[in-house]
Amino acid sequence: MTTSDFILETRDLTKVFGGLVANSSVSIGFKERQAHAVIGPNGAGKSTFVNLLTGHLPPSGGQILFKGANIAGLPAHKVTRLGIGRSYQKTNIFPSFTCFENARLAAQSRLPTSMRFLRPALSYAETNRKANEALEAAGLAARAERVAGTMSYGEQRQLEIAMVLATAPEILVLDEPLAGMGKEESEKMVALLRDLARRYTLILVEHDMDAVFAIAEVLSVMVNGTLLESGPLEQVRASKAVQDAYLGDGAEAY
Ligand SMILES: Nc1ncnc2c1ncn2[C@@H]1O[C@H](COP(=O)(O)OP(=O)(O)OP(=O)(O)O)[C@@H](O)[C@H]1O
What we know:
The protein has helices at 46-53, 76-82, 99-110, 113-118, 120-137, 153-165, 183-196, 209-215, 233-238, 240-247; strands at residues 8-17, 20-26, 29-30, 35-39, 61-66, 69-70, 84-87, 171-175, 201-205, 218-223, 226-232. By secondary structure, the chain is of the alpha/beta class. It has two domains: 1-83 and 170-254, 3-Layer(aba) Sandwich (Rossmann fold); 94-167, no CATH class. It has a six-stranded mixed beta sheet with strand order 7-8-9-4-10-11, with helices on both faces. Strands 1, 2, 3, 5 and 6 form a five-stranded antiparallel beta sheet that branches. Strand 10 (218-223) and strand 11 form a beta hairpin. This is ABC transporter ATP-binding protein. Residues 8-249 form the ABC transporter domain.
C-alpha cells in the first residue's frame, strides 16, 4: 500500500513520558471515509495516540502524515484548521450556552483570522450556517435553542460531536464517544456515528466492543504502547495474537 492510499498515516510514532514509552513506533494508516477503531486495554496508549494525532501532545519521534505532509509537532489549533477535528473523553461543552451558541463558537474556531476580523458580516453568516448544519447532522436541530447544561448526558455528547462537525473537518477523531452512556443513548450514538462514517474519515477510540463492531470497518489493536495488529474487522477478530492478548477471554472484560 502506498502513502497516497491514506489521508492520515503515522510512521514509527513514539511518545515517551519520563521512562515510560506510551507509544512505541506506532505505524497506522487511515483511509478516507473509512471508520477505523483503535482499541486496546486500559493504559495501552490509545489516548496518547489520539493526543499525538491531534497536536495535543508533541511526539518524541516519528511522523504524522496528513495528505502526505508531515504535521508532527503542529499545535492543536493548527491541526484543527487542517481539517482534523476531535472530541474528548469527558464532555467539553459550555453548559450555560445554548446548543446553537456552542456550535457557533466551534465554527468560529476554524475560521482563518482574516475572516474573523476583516469580514465580520460574511463570517457571521457563514458560522451561523455551519453551526446549524452541524446541529442538524448531529441530530440536534430541534434542540438549537436549548441551554446545553439542561439536556440529557447523551444529548450533551451529541452536542460535542456537533461542535466537532462545526469545525468543518475531514477527519473526526473521537475519544470514547460512548463513555458513561446508558443502553438507549449508546444505540442512538452508534446510529449517529454509522451515519457520519459514510461522509467522514472516522478514527474512534472506544471500549464498547459491540459499538466498535457496529461502526468500524478497520481495527487497530494496541497493547503496552505498541501496535499489535491493524486490518479489516474480521481479520483482526480472527487473529490469534489479538485473541490471546486482548479479546481472549471475551471483549466484555474491557
Ligand atoms: N501526561 C502523561 N504523563 C505521564 N504518563 C502518561 C501521561 N499520559 C499517559 N501516560 C501513561 O501512558 C500510558 C498510556 O496511557 P493512555 O492514557 O494513552 O492509555 P489508554 O489506552 O488511553 O488508556 P485508557 O483506555 O484507560 O484511557 C499509561 O501508562 C499512562 O499512565
